[in-house]
Amino acid sequence: MSFSLQAAGKTDVGCVRANNEDTFGYDLTHGVFVLCDGMGGAAAGEIASTLAADTILAYFRNSKATDSEIGAGFKGLPESARALGKAIESANHAVYQEALKNPEHTGMGTTVVAVLFEDESFSVGHLGDSRLYLVRGDTLQQLTADHSVIMEQVRRGLLTVEEARISQMQNLVTRALGVRETVEPDLGTHLAYAGDVLLLCTDGLSRFVPEKKMLDLIAQSTGLQQCSESLVEAAKELGSDDNITCVLVRVVAGL
Q: Looking at the 3D structure of the chain, how many domains does it have?
């Protein structure tokens, strides 16, 4: 790639939960970033999110699938998006099989949002309601669409965004990783420009911190680590009742 990447992340159990079922990880060498929000009782959510993130990172650290190994559903997409789709499929298989082996983990799963940089672009894959935002200049744009009951109602015009924020069905996702034997992630590719900042976050942050507040904190930050900590603290101050996790990635012009 003709640019370099900087990254930082922060995860916090939050003010209410007893354990943290969020996981994040990244590999600057391979340009891959992943964030997961687990679900399931008896610590199964934590197991699912960790296994999913580790599997996706390992996929790119080891070897990518060839075109013949990539499912028909990924045909026609850019190579990086196809590879990301295959990595998510591999993670789904790992989590699903782990649940089959351990009856106490039946039904465990996790959201996932993952980003892969390649050449002058980045690809995105996601399932569930963890999000990816792009900060470019003085604007913030959400690049993922939540797979949730609430946001489906918003898209159909049955609820307003304001009504969705206070709904009691916030945590009902319509797609997740590891719950079923097969999975259909949303995949897309976007051009990358020097100065771009990507924000991956769980709903413990996005449900409580308004987008304007996110943008202000990113614009005012002195560094990515300080910014990630500020975003988490803002979510706690605004009453987040969930685990809170974010990853920030900055695109830096090459020499």
A: 1
